[in-house]
Amino acid sequence: MASDILSSKKGMQSAPFFLIVSSLIMLFTMGILFPSFQNWLIQLNDNMAIKEALKLRNSLNEIHEMGDIGSVEKVVMNLPPGYCIDIQDGKKLRPYRLTGTAPEYLSEDIVLNSKVESNINSDGEQANEVCGDMIVEVSYGKPQTPKGFQIYVTG
């Protein structure tokens, strides 16, 4: 069958036309589908960030319910690039996406059952957000030798 097209003069003359038409159809289709694909990826990352914030909230609430000084739990956070969780007033969590100059918050406040204090002790500076891939150590009361990112549940 392929040899019939190649041996036919009409088949050889019309083949470039059909290739051009099919290429144009693919080009226009990709122009429509590509923005939809990008929106789908953004929505997927938004949902992943909200899920990670809920995971952190559940860990904080578990430590608070234990109420034992010295209770420690490590939470592995896997936030997509450009996403963070803001610890607001030590009473609520808010995941957000960095867009240009201002953060775009993804959900309503995720309220905690306890008051928390967070910091990064490697630099000795206070930090109120979790970003990217990190291990967060959640503890009830302040430990004596803190390392890395820690959140203290105070009551």
Distance between the termini: 80 Å
**Unreliable segments of 5+ consecutive residues:** none
Number of spatially distinct domains: 2
Q: Kindly name the structural category.
A: alpha+beta
Assign a percent range to the helix content: 40-55%
- Broad shape: rod-shaped
Order of helices and strands: HHEEEEEEEEE
Q: Average pLDDT across residues?
A: 78
| Rg estimate, integer Å | 26 Å
Alpha plus pi helix count:
2
Strand elements, count: 9
Can you summarize the main beta sheet?
Answer: 5 strands, antiparallel
Strand content: 25-35%
Notable features of this structure?
41% helix; 9 strands; 155 residues; single chain; alpha+beta; 5-stranded antiparallel sheet
Protein architecture, described:
This protein is an alpha+beta fold and 155 residues long. It has two domains: 2-38; 47-153, no CATH class. It contains two helices and nine strands. Strands 2, 3, 4, 5 and 7 form a five-stranded antiparallel β-sheet that branches. The N and C termini lie far apart (80 Å). The mean pLDDT is 78.
